[in-house]
């Protein structure tokens, strides 16, 4: 009876170990296949990416009644004709540059000599270094070694030998001419064939992928793959146009500056801009070095540097966000890791293809359930939900980072939306862990202290929607904004003027927020206190111990007009009733609101708890509680959740 669990656990551990080994072996096999099969896989990858770029053009021709086969062949032939023309232009530019290089040698020599002359003391140091090297050679010689100056061995004059090759025949000359071109031509032919067949058999390939990904839900999988293909086609086509325009502007700018072979550097800049982060810098290096060799002065270098420093930020930080968002959907770490991985496997072509290939994987991961791990690994969206991130930061004791992310959220939404939809849900996750016994009281108390400091950091924030919505660029804050509704029903609650309040509400702290049973309840009470204070009703927060038999008589209630009793669980109706009774004895004239901040609680259950505890009002969210507090003052406020109690209080 005692050993059986150990056997089961050992069996589970063995299964987990075998699964990990199998995954590692599979990953190794995939990497080995990518490396050793690169001669075949690189053309296929290029063909797939080209098909994404050309698919919208084929679709446009089909919409004007061009037959599909003719549209595919016409688009592919035109595309590769442009590619061949660009390659021919590159070859011409390279040949011209190679022939002009000897002319720039004198300029470089003069600049180097000038630099040496302007460096103070450089010649003295060089002479001293040469003298020390000569002395070192003399000291290293053996004692009995003859001096090179005293002994000279007579040597015979060398006999010149000339080796003549027989004249190659016509077939051998043709072979030498064609052999360097066979591999590029074969690769190009494979790419063309694959592109044509992918565009012609697009629906059939999609159906086969659906069969592999999940045929149990055809509608969802089909919609996901169609959406992914449409997004990728648009992304790659826009990137191609944008990078091509970047190369065109750079080429024209270099031509105006006077850099030789400006067309070559413009094309190179457009191609290298597909390389993330460092592509534009690599493209700038070549014309910068050439400007030093061409211009006797330094003005051409400065103009070239200024061209790249102006054009790249405009394209990267102004045009790209307007055209297709703030990013390609990849995390920065994923971009660098992907570039390193694909370059190690496929060389320079892998560096250029790294970002497009990784974008394909991330889009598939977002739409295909079995490939979701790809989105988690490489995507820029947070791996955890906003409430989970908040809970994790509270556990880690990091209120500063949490406050910074909250301020990003508040650029687009109100404070009550953040507290109800992010922070409160994070506390509810903590409450679930506490009920399971995985969150000990010490850590719960640490969470409460972190929330207190977090609320202090946000104390200067009001609870109104921002007058001018500024879209956040932070991925985590964007995820939090997308997880909440555009407009909360509690966004437009008024901020009360203290001079217009009834006399019983003019105390220093007219609202008393009391935690129900745990430090987590106190954390929710701190949030509620900040929200009511932001609406003109200053609040004081008390811990759960304040309502104990020993402490309730010492509870300060001077100036309190309303008390809020906060719970994150509904497991103790009796505790709620006793707490309400004690508050009623201390505050016989005050209204008491039972705040059951429980996930997905329905109104009937909430009313049942209120009736059991004999509280005046009940609320299920922080925003609703603030609304009831404002209504209790007699102020005119729109009632979002009509109830008998609220209607009576506002009458």
Molecular shape? elongated
Q: What would you give as the CATH superfamily of the largest domain?
A: Cobalamin-binding domain
Could you say what the CATH topology of the largest domain is called? Rossmann fold
CATH architecture verdict of the largest domain: 3-Layer(aba) Sandwich
Any low-confidence stretches, pLDDT <50, length ≥5? 1-9, 147-151, 638-651
Mean pLDDT: 79
- Number of distinct beta strands: 5
- The radius of gyration is 37 Å
Percentage of residues in helical conformation: 55-70%
Structural class by secondary-structure content:
mainly alpha
> SSE order, as H and E?
HHHHHHHHHHHHHHHHHHHEHEEHEHEHH
What distance separates the N and C termini? 69 Å
Give the number of domains.
4
Task: Give the CATH class of the largest domain.
Answer: Alpha Beta
Query: Beta fraction of the residues?
Result: under 5%
Number of helices: 24
Give the biggest beta sheet. Answer: 5 strands, parallel
Strand order, largest beta sheet: 2-1-3-4-5
